[in-house]
Design a protein that fits this description.
Layout (H helix, E strand, L loop, with lengths): L1 H27 L3 H13 L3 H13 L7 H13 L3 H26 L24 H28 L2 H4 L2 H5 L3 H78 L9
Helix pairs in contact: 1-2, 2-3, 3-4, 4-5, 5-9, 6-9
Length: 264
């Protein structure tokens, strides 16, 4: 009788291993409707790997409605018999309980302020319509150059931090469901797009102001040079005219005969 029982147990273990292998194949092929029933049967029979997989499918919402409470229950069963993956998943669920606000922040609250603050808060330069003195020209140039330096730093930082994984802490990503990860990805990419569009619009406005300032200042300088040149020419003409009159008056004095005093 004992031999028969041992033989039956061997057959049962072999069948369980075959079912687990089939379930793993279905999961890899994303045939969740076939994988979940097999995993559930094995999980109820006490298989730790199957218990973890069932919890995972409830976590992801694969082949069933997403149910984090049900996921926790299966993870606890698997963790109780030493499944390491289940323990890590439980830790992620615990982080969700205490740090759920971080998920909300990255899925809908993040506004990209960190990309535009501090050293990357590039305030528009002071660009007048026209500069009329060398001091004003120098001040405008320095303001524009300071903005350009800041903007270049902003662009470099933006490009370096643009990938989603670099913005969201790894332990926050780890406690998100796949749907939340996708929401966060979509939200962050949308914010990035808005920040970039605003920065480009600001840069275009500054460059437009710069071009207008350069054109206006160049026009003023040319007009001022013409005015000064004409003023100098007029002054030269006046000086020459004054000199001619002086010379003419001197010549007239030289030609006028002297009048002798009369004798009585």
């Amino acid at each position: 009788m004992r031999r028969v029982l041992l033989a039956m147990m061997f057959v049962s273990c072999t069948a369980m291993a075959d079912d687990l292998a089939d379930a793993n194949k279905f999961l890899a092929a994303k045939q969740y409707d076939k994988a979940l029933p097999l995993y559930t049967k094995l999980a109820k029979a006490g298989n730790a790997e199957a218990q973890f997989r069932v919890g995972e499918m409830y976590w992801y919402g694969d082949g069933t409605a997403q149910d984090l409470q049900a996921a926790r229950g299966w993870f606890e069963k698997a963790a109780a018999v030493g499944n390491v993956d289940a323990r890590e998943s439980l830790a992620a669920l615990d982080r969700r309980a205490s740090r759920g606000s971080e998920i909300d922040y990255w899925t809908k609250g993040y506004d990209g302020a960190d990309l535009r603050s501090g050293q990357f808060e590039c305030k528009p330069p002071v660009v007048p319509a026209v500069s009329t003195t060398n001091a004003e020209i120098q001040a405008a140039r320095q303001s524009i150059e300071a903005w350009q330096t800041c903007y270049s730093g902003f662009v470099a930082n933006f490009n370096a931090t643009a990938p989603l994984a670099k913005r969201i802490p790894a332990d926050v990503l780890d406690m998100m469901t796949p749907q939340e990860v996708e929401l966060a990805r979509t939200h962050v990419e949308s914010v990035y797009g808005k920040v970039l569009a605003k920065a480009q619009a600001d840069a275009d406005a500054v460059r437009s102001q710069q071009a207008a300032w350069e054109a206006g200042t160049e026009r003023f300088v040319k007009e001022e040079n013409v005015r000064v040149e004409r003023q100098n020419e007029a002054l030269q003409r006046a000086t020459l005219e004054t000199e001619r009159r002086r010379q003419a008056e001197g010549a007239m004095r030289d030609r006028t005969p002297a009048i002798l005093p009369s004798r009585r």
